[in-house]
């Protein structure tokens, strides 16, 4: 419900340079563990994509953790392409350095 507790979030950050105004980064897609497996992550990403299209953004990119705390399956299911990763990019919750997974999607 709109007046209920916040259980998820997502951000769309448009590139600010003139030569990159067609692209944006998807950031902070998060759903509370108690509310996962209810398609909320899918709905958040699909809403971000709708906003991007309205703003004439044609390329989205993002990164997530490569490990179990990441959302690689979600992004692949939604049509994002894996572009690679950087070892030791961020610390997992247990403070272990983890590789990230970089994704992109061309919007029509």
Structure explained in plain terms:
This protein is α+β, with helices and mostly antiparallel strands and 108 residues long. Helix content is 19%, strand content 35%. It is built from two helices and seven strands, in the order E-E-H-E-H-E-E-E-E. Helix 1 links the parallel strand 2 and strand 3. The protein starts with 7 loop residues before the first strand and ends with a strand. The model has no long low-confidence stretch (mean pLDDT 92).
- Main sheet summary: 5 strands, mixed
What is the number of helices?
A: 2
Class based on secondary structure composition and strand pairing: alpha+beta
The helix content is 10-25%
Taken as a percent bin, the fraction of beta residues is 35-45%
Order of helices and strands: EEHEHEEEE
Q: What is the oligomeric state here?
A: single chain
Short description:
The chain has 108 residues and is of the alpha+beta class. Helix content is 19%, strand content 35%. A hairpin with a 5-residue loop joins strand 5 (90-91) and strand 6 (97-98).
Task: Give me the secondary-structure topology.
Blueprint: E1 8-14, E2 23-31, H1 40-54, E3 59-65, H2 72-77, E4 81-84, E5 90-91, E6 97-98, E7 100-106
Descriptive labels:
globular, five-stranded mixed β-sheet, alpha+beta, 108 residues
């Amino acid at each position: 419900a709109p007046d209920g507790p916040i259980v998820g979030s997502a951000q769309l950050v448009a590139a600010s340079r003139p030569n990159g105004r067609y692209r944006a980064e998807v950031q902070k897609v998060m759903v509370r563990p108690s509310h996962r497996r209810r398609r909320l992550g899918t709905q958040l990403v699909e809403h971000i994509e709708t906003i991007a299209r309205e703003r004439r953004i044609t390329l989205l990119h993002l990164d997530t953790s490569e490990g179990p705390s990441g959302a690689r399956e979600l992004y692949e299911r939604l049509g994002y392409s894996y572009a690679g990763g950087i070892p030791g990019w961020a610390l997992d919750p247990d403070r272990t350095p983890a590789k990230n997974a970089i994704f992109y999607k061309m919007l029509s």
